[in-house]
Amino acid sequence: MKMKKIILLVIFCLLAELGLGVRLYKVSPNDPLQMRPLLSSLLLTKVSNVESDLDKFVILRKWVRGQFNVGASSSFELNPVKMLGTKHKHSVICDSFSRLYYLACKSVGLKARILHLNTEDNQGHYANEVWLGDSKRWIYMDPMYNTGVVVNGRLCSSLEIHQALGTKIEISFSHNKATTLPVPGKDLLSHFYRFQVVNPSYVFLEGKDLLKKAKRVTFLNWVDEDTPHIRQNTEFLFLLAKFVIPLLFLVFLIAFFHPCKLNIILLIFILALLLRLFCVAFQLQGGGLTLAGDSVEYDAIAINLVKGEGFAITSGNPTSMRAPLYPFFLAVIYYIFGHSYVPALIVQAIISSLSCIFIYLIGKRIHSQGLGIIAGLLTAIYPALIRYTGFLLTETLYIFLFSGVILYILKIKESNAFAKWALAGLLLGLGMLTKAEAILFPLFIFIWLVIKHKNRFKESLKKFGALLIGILIILSPWIARNYNVHHSFVAISTRGGLVFWGGNNSKAQGKWVVVAEESSPEYQALSEVEQNKQGFKKGLEFIRRYPTKFAINGVKKIAGLLYPFEPRYNLAFGLLFPVALVGMILFWKKVERNNLLYYIFLHSLAIAIMFYGIPRFRLSILPYLIIFSSFGLIYLLRQYPKRTMALGLLSSILVANILLFIYSGPVRIWLKTTLNY
User: Which residue among 132, 178, 595, 671 is buried most deeply as judged by most CB within 10 Å?
Assistant: First the structure.
């Protein structure tokens, strides 16, 4: 009977894998596999009698240039082949020219790829490179300008053009007179300041060529190290769609139909990983990862670390503006795989999935396996925790490290072993090196220990001392490096003062406001350590002079931390938070009043009051709110004496959230007006 079940399960999984593979691998309307017959009928006659690959590429380039006028903006969402069937010429820009040229080459069996070029001030241009089979090399082709670029008398690749810029090497254009555009000059050449390969969306091709024997992945290492990342990595999507996701789905189904302790952990992990890989794949299909804000600096520091230029945002200028662990984390990935965001996102998906297991184990330890399972599953499917896996930000790594620390401390809380508490300090130190805000959490651990042990203060002090020694051991190398660079004590980051001042000044209304003095020549002349001290000094002056305003702003900062509009109403958080509050109260009354998880929430509120609060900053406490909300659900639905009242409370929360979601616009405006936020 068991064998029959297993056979049926395997058959079902294989069918599911096939269905999932077909769904993900489905050829879209913009795929060359569907467009090839349309273009082949038009173009094969034009090149069938031409022997030279170069002549074929030039004929196709001329044909593509003749299909459109240069004009209105276009998009990768548009289908350039469908435009061919219309009576009038469409006006498009470079991206449609390059995509049609790529598809035209593919349709007649020629090898081509799309490039995105950038000037130093970030002005972009799309063009192509084509593969000359006879000479085994790539050459640059620009279908919009209907030209190639000649260096030292021969057509060459983008990399060769890039290397020739700024030298005395002669650069010219193989301009075709059939076009009405003027011959391109320095304006086009300036775009070769940096460039990257852009694989067209939804094209799962050449997955078999993904790996080679060298340490790095082939398509990430085709140009020099200064070349930016590849925005769309089709080969990774191919692997995800055809092999990884179906295999994970198979394991998920096996774990689901055969529950045991190990399979529950596996179930939570696979579910979390599937959702996070889908998120990564979706982001890559949508055009790749675009860096903004903090991500830009993390990425720049990681690149400089790999190059051997130290912890610096700009080459040659060592800094301590960022906590170091996340840039080092990225640097290790870049060193192994080359400068690509995809491996980083894949690793983040894995560690975020491991965080879900930690939350399951924390829930199990503080109450029951049932609480752990619900909390682990909710953490696995919570939208924000999935979405942030796809960003180069510290949150995913920090949640992983911090949840590991909490689980370990809960495990050793009754132990007096010095080594165990020192190890907890080492782990917590890693969290601090990821996000500097964690530097205040040991204070909350001390309060928790003192209340927990009551009349055994020496025992609390011993544990806390061991914890601090562990923290000091892990922070010491970074502190020593900072002293060597700045000749001043810097525990983790020199950015704290800037943020503190931005959240505590006369213009701040609960948000971070850039202070006008920051742009003054006097301030800019200060070193980053002096700027950090100045920021804390100015912020403290404001608090001393305006304590009432600071208190009012503190309330607004907490409101900002818990603000549910981003800008649309966050339904997931709207449902989670009130149930979590109910769970906190019930846990306090029925289970344990001095649980460490309460202090995590208090620590987050304290950080928000001191600096400022935005929805992103609550990400690190979401797993613990999920644990409390899971307890609230279990107690209300199973153990609460007045079942009708419990169902009424949960129904009210649901109805209120639906109404807030429907009328989110007016409510958001009212909140902003009321809070002046």
Answer: 595
* Whole-angstrom distance, CA of residue 1 vs CA of residue 463: 55
Q: Is 494 helix (H, G, I), strand (E, B) or coil?
A: coil
Which of 400, 391, 379 is CA-nearest to residue 294? 391
Mean pLDDT (whole number) for 653-658: 90
Tally Cβ neighbours within 10 Å of residue 87.
4
Mean pLDDT of 423-451: 95
Condensed to tens digits (0 to 9), the pLDDT of residues 18-60 reads 444 333 333 333 444 445 555 666 687 788 888 888 888 999 9
154-155/147-151 β-pairing: antiparallel
Q: For 34-200, give the CATH class.
A: alpha beta
Residues 555-569, mean pLDDT to the nearest whole number: 87
Express as a percent the part of the chain with pLDDT over 90: 37
In which element (H, E) is residue 250 found?
A: helix 245-257
Neighbouring C-alpha atoms within 13 Å toward the C-beta of 304: 19
Measured in degrees and rounded to the nearest 5, phi and psi for residue 172 equal: -140, -175
User: By percentage, how much of the chain surpasses pLDDT 70?
Assistant: 78
Token output for 180:
């009405």
Tokens of 97: 């020219």
- pLDDT above 90 (res 262): no
528-545 helix and 547-561 helix, angle to the nearest 10 degrees: 110
pLDDT at 665: 81
- pLDDT score recorded for residue 290: 66
Residue with tokens 């419990």: 646
Whole-angstrom Cα distance, residue 571 to residue 569?
A: 6
The rounded distance, in Å, linking the Cα atoms of 162 and 119 is 11
Q: Which two tokens stand for residue 632?
A: 């609230």
Return the biggest CA–CA distance within the chain: 95
Q: Is the per-residue pLDDT at 366 higher than 90? A: yes
What single-letter amino acid sits at 659?
L
Question: What are the extents of the domains in the chain?
Answer: 34-200, 244-474, 495-677
Say if residue 217's pLDDT is above 60: no
The predicted pLDDT at position 40 comes to 66
Q: Comparing C-alpha atoms, which of 526, 640, 622 is closest to residue 580?
A: 622
Q: Residue 130 pairs with which residues in a beta bridge?
A: 112, 139
Q: Is 292 helix (H, G, I), strand (E, B) or coil?
A: coil
Q: CA 609, CA 543: separation in Å to the nearest integer?
A: 11
User: What's the CA gap between 447 and 462, in Å, rounded?
Assistant: 13
- What b/e string do you get for 115-153 counting C-beta neighbours within 10 Å, with b at 16 or more? bbbbbeeeeebbbbbbbbeeeeebbbbbbbbbbbbbbee
Instruction: Give yes or no for a contact between 65 and 97, defined as CB atoms under 8 angstroms apart.
Output: yes
Task: Work out the pLDDT band at 521, boundaries 50, 70, 90.
Answer: confident
Element (H, E) at 412: helix 395-412
